[in-house]
Amino acid sequence: MIVGDELQHWIADRAAQRRTEQAVKAFGEAWDRGPVHRAIGAAFSALDAPEAEDVAAVVANLFADDFWADALVETLAEALREDRYFEPPFRHIGSDVHNGLVVYEDAHVSIAAGVTRAAQLAAKKQVSGGPRSIAFSGQLTLFKFVKSGGARLSFWECPPITEAFSAASAGRCVRAGTREIADGGLIVVDGRRQGFVIEHAAANLVVLQATVKPGRAPLAVEYDSETRAYVGCSAADDSASRIQMISTLLRKLDCAAAFPAIAVFLDHPNFFVRWHVMKELLGLDAEAALPHLGKMAARDPHPEARRAARAALDRIESGEAARRAA
Amino acid sequence: MNNNKAIRLVVEQLPELATEVAISGSAKQQEVGGGWCLGVAAGIAIYYG
Fold first, then answer.
1. Predicted interface score ipTM higher than 0.85
2. Beta partners for B48?
3. Contact A241 B24 (CB under 8 A)
4. Residue B42 counted as domain residue
5. Nearest CA in chain A to B33
6. pLDDT digits (tens, 9 = 90+) for A170-226
7. Does B45 reside within a domain?
8. Which residue of B has its CA nearest to A211?
C-alpha cells in the first residue's frame, strides 16, 4: 500500500485523528436530533404496535418531501471538504452497481440513501452468464427515486410468501408490467409477493429505500429469470440466521447448559429455525430433546417440520429397538 | 454431542427439511446488480432480459 504524505501525517497525528473522531461523533449526534428522527419518532409514538401499512404511511410522508436528503448530502459533503478523513456515521451498503448508507434504523423500518450506477448496470448487460434471479425480498419496501436515471422497471409477482411456504408449493413468478420511472417517483413494492427489476437506466439513479420490518415474510425467494421457476430461498430476517448459527456453535462446543436457552426457539415463528434448533438440541442432549421432538412431530404448524421430526423419531426408535434386541 | 447420554445422535445425519433455506442475504443464483441489501435482506434483482 502506498501511503501519501498527507495520510502519513494524519496517521502520526493523534490530535488530528481525535478531531476527525469528534467530527464524526458530532455529525451523528446532530443527525439523530434532526428532522428525520423527529418526524419518524413523532409518528411512531402516536401508533401502538404499528403494522406494515402504518409504517409505510409514515415513510411515504417522509419521502413526499425529501428536502432532508438534499440537506444530508450537502452537510456530508461539507464535512468531507473540511476533513478528508471524515467518515459518515452510517452503515455502508454496497454491491457492484449500488452504494448507499443506512441513514435511519429502528424496530419498524430501515432507511437507506444510495446511488445505482448506470455504467455498472450497462456493464452487467454485456457480461454473459448463466440464468439470473428475480428476487422477492419478503418485506414491504418503499423506493423514492430522487433521480430516476430514466429507468425502466419491470414488475413481477409470485405466490404470497407466508409462514407456510415450501419449495414444493412455490410455483412460478409472472411478469406484471413495465413502467418508466420519473424523477421523484415513489413506488411501493410488497416483497411478500412483488418484485421489480431495473431493465434499463440511462443515467445514475439516486434512491431512498425504506424497508418495513413489521409483517415481513419469513423468507426471501428467488425465481429464475428465464424459466420463472422457483430457484431457492433464504431467511428474510438476519436474526433467524443468527439463532441458527449460535445454536450450532453451542452444540459444537457441547454446551449442555445452553439447552434451555436454545429450546426457547422451538416456538420461533419460522419453521426452518424450529427444525434447526430441534436438531441442535438432539445433538446436545437427545434424551432431553425427545419430548420436544415428539411434540414437533405431532403438532408443528409446518408439514415439513412435522415430517422431519417424525422421520427423526422413527430413526431413534428403530435404533433403540435394535439396541434392545442385541 | 453429550457422551454421558445413552442416546447419541449425529446432527449431520438427522433428516433435512425438503425446503432448503439459505442464510439471510445469500442468493442461489447471481442477481444482476446484486441488490440493495440493508443487512435485513431486502434484496432486489437487477438484470437485463
1. no
2. none
3. yes
4. yes
5. A97
6. 999 999 999 999 999 999 999 999 998 888 899 999 999 999 999 999 999 999 988
7. yes
8. B42
